[in-house]
Amino acid sequence: MDTYMKKGYLNSEFRLFHLTDRETKEVEYHYHDFNKITIFIKGKVNYMIEGKSYDLKPYDIVLVNHNDIHRLEVDNSVLYERIIVYIAPGFIQAYKNKDYDLSFCFQRAAKEHSNVLRIPSLEKSSLFRSITRLEKSFSDDSYASGLYRQVLFLEFMIHLNRAALKNRLEFIDTDNCNAKIIHILDYINNHLSENLNIDILAEHFYISKYYMMRQFKQETGYTIGNYIAQKRLLLAKEMLLSGTPAAQVCYDCGYHDYSTFQRAYRKLFSESPSQTVTLE
């Protein structure tokens, strides 16, 4: 089984980077076990996330949820500049109460079936002003500069969620996708515990299984079987870390034999399900 690599190991709940590259190596399909926000500043970049493809414009905001399989293509003839934020799933949760939830922007983006948020009018946007303050903070090496950047990031998140609430952002859709494949991806992710063999999917979507397999590979870069296996195992790890017993995880993630589940899990994560719980 081909698998997609985990990238960007996060050793704290929050990490912030300002990166500028003239030569960016091609990044293959991969996933993170944390959420990622990219504020695109300049360059020529095509971002592919779960079957959709986005041509970015300056100050677009890219939201990638943990376990989303994605990759990007960068034109190295143009300088590529961006701010990247790695966020542990529990970090934003810590800023949630009955009055506000900083994860609302992620929820709204999911509802809109979009990973890219665009500011329609930069000069009038308080969100854009908060981004430029965050961008400038990277040249500040005075007292508590790292802490100050975290404060500015939280300010950015507040303005981002306010803009999402008041419809002051465009949730970018893309013509660079196959609507049928997007529906198949959504179905798979919502039915991981069920039988998802090729014949069942083809019958459900009224499509030739051979045509579906070719289109899925062409549009996403991976086979249907590999995608399903990867998503089931990523879900399994998430459930184990939340305290769900391993035997229940096995069956809730579509496996009918624990030894098969254990072998597949160990092959992907280089540890057994019980070791995942112990190490955490």
TrEMBL record:
Residues 182-279 form the HTH araC/xylS-type domain. Transmembrane segments: none annotated. Gene3D superfamilies: Homeodomain-like, Jelly Rolls. SMART domains: HTH_ARAC. InterPro entries: AraC-bd (IPR003313), Homeodomain-like_sf (IPR009057), HTH-like (IPR037923), HTH_AraC (IPR018060), RmlC-like_jellyroll (IPR014710). Keywords: DNA-binding, Transcription, Transcription regulation. The keyword DNA-binding applies. It comes from the Bacteria. The keyword Transcription regulation applies. This is AraC family transcriptional regulator.
